[in-house]
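Batch 3, record 17
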Amino acid sequence: MSSLNQYIDLFEHNRRQLYDSSPEVFNRLRPAALSALERLGRFPGKRDEGYRNFSVDEVFAPDFGVNVGRVSFAVDVARTFRCDVPNLSTLLGVVVNDEFRPTATLLKNCPEGVTVMSLAEAARRYPDLVASRLGNIADNSSASAALNTLLLQDGVFVHIAPGVRLDKTIQIVNIFNASANLLSFRRVLVVVEDGASARLLMCDHTQNTDNDYLSSQVVEIFLGRGASLDYCDIEESSERTSRLSQMYVSQEADSNLSVNASSLTVGHTRNEYRVDLLDRGASAEIAGMAIAGGNQLVDSSTLIRHLAPYCHSNQLFKYLLDDNSRGAFEGLIYVAPDAVHTEAYQSDRNILASEGARMHTSPHLEIYCDDVKCSHGAATGQLDSQALFYMQTRGVPLAEARMMLMQAFMSDVIDRVRIDGLRDRLRRLVERRLNGDRTTCGDCAASCNK
Amino acid sequence: MANDNRQTTFDNADQGSEALRNVTQNEYKYGFVSDIDSDIIPRGLNEDVIRLISSKKGEPDWLLDFRLKAFRHWQTLEMPTWAHLKIPEIDYQAISYYAAPKKKDAPKSLDEVDPKLIDTFNRLGIPLEEQKALSGMAVDAVMDSVSVKTTHREKLAELGVIFCSFSEAVKDYPDLVRRYLGKVVSYRDNFFAALNSAVFSDGSFVYIPKGVRCPMELSTYFRINASGTGQFERTLIVADDDSYVSYLEGCTAPMRDENQLHAAIVEIIVEERAEVKYSTVQNWYAGDSEGKGGVYNFVTKRGLCRGDYSKLSWTQVETGSAITWKYPGCILAGEGSVGEFYSVAVTNNYQQADTGTKMIHIGKNSRSTIVSKGISAGHSENSYRGLVSVAPGASGVRNHTQCDSLLLSSTCGAHTFPYIDVKNETAVVEHEATTSKISEDQLFYCNQRGIPTEEAVALIVNGYAKEVMNKLPMEFAVEAQKLLSITLEGSVG
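Prediction for the assembled complex:
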């Protein structure tokens, strides 16, 4: 029996409560999601193409609690958590499990034309705006996305009005904290209207690390004409936290997307990116890195669809795999018949640092147009022994030499981060992660690294 | 021959694309049916048919058991759908599973061979006699599954080399066949392998004894002839310790409207320090320019580099077939064993190809190289699909893969689907792929130097495929280049 059934049962049992506590906009999406799930019948597993290394079925199989009753877990954000990045003042919002909580600075400092709020609240306040976007690109063909819609209760809503260029970074801190094993359905809806720009920093943390967590996250991003979004995603939760994140992006002409994802500490994680370049001149850059140890599993899956001429995309993924960790990358560039002058690149580089580490790569191209420049490359290997030897002959101890090479390896991805203060921060996080040092960062009281 | 039918309906096309269209439109030159009496059993497939095939060939019981086991397994399978191919539904009960040219008596000299058969080969430009005399190759001509003529047998026999049809091998060397049959491609391997194992009609068997370097290139010409028959070849090559053999396989088929199914199996076993070089030029009928007709080519080819320091090299030039589904692979089990795959796949009109290789690294320090060049034109779809897998115990593995695609029209597709699984930290595995069209700059440069556009395209395509063409044996390279010209360069070549 598929693990999907228990969630459909859960929905049936709590239907009344879900409908009562949610805005109309959410409820309207549920019947279609339910019938899609009943039709699909199961989550994809390892025998399904595209999921060979990450069984959604298995990840959802354990008996997680779902916070249908909206029990509020006490997290005093201001006191326990200051995930600050030096030299970076942000508009900070916190998501506890799936419940959005604004901070005082956010409420006070949010400039005109910028909306950062709870998705449920937004659905009540601006029902038409939310209804026109929500569930629009995250369709029900994926079982996990459909389930996210079926059990959706809250999330984050970010809206940037036309022409508004937001200097400050919006930071959303996702914290897991519950008294039992918990599954949360998180939803993020980002709309950057024509000519607007924004930077969004998301980070995942786990506070109570004695429980198992699973987050099913669906991110929908709409970029209008000439809009620009820098999206940074840092996973620093716990080894007992798993994540299935599905990002759907729709880009109009001349829009620009930059995604930078870092998986540092997490259990099993799968990040899916589905980017549609709909009109001329749209460009997307996706960079991902992972440092994995223990029994971690890091899986990334991309689908970049070039549907119009003169679009550009670039993907770079770098993994460093230690202990018994496993990495997977599955990328697909699709170029539609009329998408002339497409430039699309994809690169996947991996280092296996231990005997038990495994890497699976499938960089795919599907091209139906002749006037394109497309390439992909994939390499899996180890640290360059000659470089290590050279450094040792110059008096650099082996451990340090290894560290330097590993940092240099990761710097390609970190250098692509467009949020200034964050680059240094990430470098330090990587260095600490490579050292195996999992102490808390700075003056932050959250035990997210333990 | 059939060139007169070439379409020239592109009135206002500019010169460059005109040339491109010209070179990508040339109809199949080898389209004709030779009227030889065939011995055909009724259409359909069941255990009785398999028993009939087996008894017609006078096979021992163990081989009949093998066929029946495969058939029973095949019945539990469904046709695979994962390839990037649109395959019309195939009615396996509407196919006749056995067609053999009628035997009067085994021919002892060329005079006894049906003159029409000789004529067919002559029209193909590969006269048996000439080839025998000029190139020194031993040709085992296979026509509709049954070997009708074998040459150079005696010369090879002196060295202990066995090169004969599969059915002869079953009669004369049952122990060898039994020891190796199905050891690399099990009947359980896949749908088409199971089908072939159940109904295979004939094929070639090669055994190179220890320490023997085969003095000539072994060659077989496969043809599908009788109308409405499938062809189920089975090739088994065994290279014992320290031996070497270069095996060539070339295919041409007559023109016909009905689709024909071809599901072959090639098994190669390479022992210690032995080397096998397997080259293919495949030019079965690809259907006409409307996509009508053509051969379905669903082949399972695999080699097992069992011995330490053994080497297996696949070279293929794929220009024919309406649909190609083919992944010649190497299981690199021996320490320091080497696998190579060089491929040029050309698709034109409505052809579809999903082809590539599998390199399974099990042995320590095993190495593999993959060079795949895809050329698509017309409305065709050309996919590279490959697997490089490194087992946990296989330390020091090295792989380099390069797969390039060249698009010659705006309506074709070029796809790349590599899979790379690395389970050992000392492995170095690299994959590179590019997709592009012939750039205007390149054409302009050639024009500037006085090279007409047509020739420039030919030049560039030839240069693009050269890396693979160079790996073909001399005799074959000529034919392959001719084929590339026929498929792509018509007015140029």
